[in-house]
Amino acid sequence: MSNSNSTEHAIVIVGAGPAGLTAALELQAAGIDNITVLEADTQVGGISRTVEHHGNRIDIGGHRFFSKSDWVMDWWRKLMPVAAPADTSSGRELRYQGASANVPASNAKESDEGVLLVRSRLSRIYFNKQFFDYPLKLNPDTLLKLGPWKTFTFGLSYVWAKIHPRKPEHSLEDFLVNRFGRKLYLQFFKEYTEKVWGVPCGEISAAWGAQRIKSLSIVKAITHALKKVLGLGGKAEQTSLIESFLYPKYGPGQMWETAAQRFVAQGGMLLMQSRVEGIHMHGGHVQGITYRDAQGSTHLLSCSHLLSTMPIKDLVQAAGSGFPQEVRSIASQLSYRDFITVGLLYPRSAIPRQLDDNWIYIQEPGVNVGRVQVFNNWSPYMVADPTTLWMGLEFFCKEEDALWNMDEASMKAMAHKEMVQIGLVRADAPLDAVVLHVPKAYPGYFGEAYTRFDELQTALDAVPNLFLIGRNGMHRYNNQDHSMLTAKEAARQIAAGVVDKAAIWGINVDDEYHEEKK
């Protein structure tokens, strides 16, 4: 099975993001070298790419390089060594991860180019012109800002939810109310979540909460805070409570650019600006694909296996009559959420308060912006001039919305106006601005088609040489480390000559898989 120069292995991977490139390198490590990766964009990395604008870099969506999987941590550190932090205690939350002997010792320094930095994590909620911890922590600061009456009523609401939980949990609203109480849900979760998804929480599947929020609860947040106050330390059990993480010096795209370079150097074929337009099936197997290159020419590429990270909606459409009409109908109606990132550059004098955050979740009413990143705090090397602050404002929408179709000048003006309106900025105008559109960023966990997703999954899994991996490839709201693990498993099966699609779907289904280290 290891000789890929035979006709037995001719692997095509659609998408050069975390899943696609991980699969490519894992297949090469297994001795398979007849591999072609097609990427529709001009950059690798998918939504984990880094976009440069006038020397300033944008991390689309924000990507912490932290995982409860030792394998993932080791994989990253084999490609990019960790630069020794000036304060070694800053790596306290990472020490128990990736200490494997499989990773060579590193003498890397921050001045080196291809390194991972140890960064501090700070995310906060901005509500009523005040900052609250994210995730919410019932510490004295939070209780003081809420006031005694809200603290009391929120507490009663939480106790009531524990005594009278909603069973079964059908919707995201059920999921959140059961874990935080109705009043806290209404105050801090409902409006923001509906801004992100564009539909009521009662129409979103509880599976989204299980995927993204998982086992985080008020009790565990309080326990973590008390341990910290008492100096008990210990490992943070929840991913969202981890306080340090690794980060490529020049943004997440640097990791995937490094991976792509390694793949090509080892003999892999990487075709950029190559969009898959047809998937050819015969006898229930994928025979090959048709793609269009940057010059508009079409090409036919045969394959023994197809690994897809493209949106399932597009995959099934490209396969045409390869799937029954009912399957095509379900796929065509899958929902996605798109978003726009607006980069705004300001002199630090225009920022009235200290912003040490990676992310700020905007809960203020009357504005469109949902979240703000401060790229200086992800890595100081993301910003050309340290006397400036480089922000990324995230707006959630659909491709048919007026917001998506707003002209760039108007979008920049609105973004700046909202920053001034909520009090994060004091300036007449930004020094620079850029608008980036990101289609199909989030697979939707709602709509009639999603309720029938199991039918679609069954039909796709029945194609033995088609492997779905990654976020859009599986229509699952995964982080990049989850996507990498699905790619690892798919590569293992191909190299071993076995097919077990359930093993791929089973990754990160259990609530405890990713969030709680065994």
UniProtKB/TrEMBL annotation:
Amine oxidase domain: residues covered: 242-494
Domain of life according to the entry: Bacteria
Annotated InterPro entries: Amino_oxidase, FAD/NAD-bd_sf
Entry-linked PANTHER family: UDP-GALACTOPYRANOSE MUTASE
Pfam families recorded: Amino_oxidase, NAD_binding_8
Name of protein: NAD(P)/FAD-dependent oxidoreductase
Taxonomic source organism: Thermomonas beijingensis
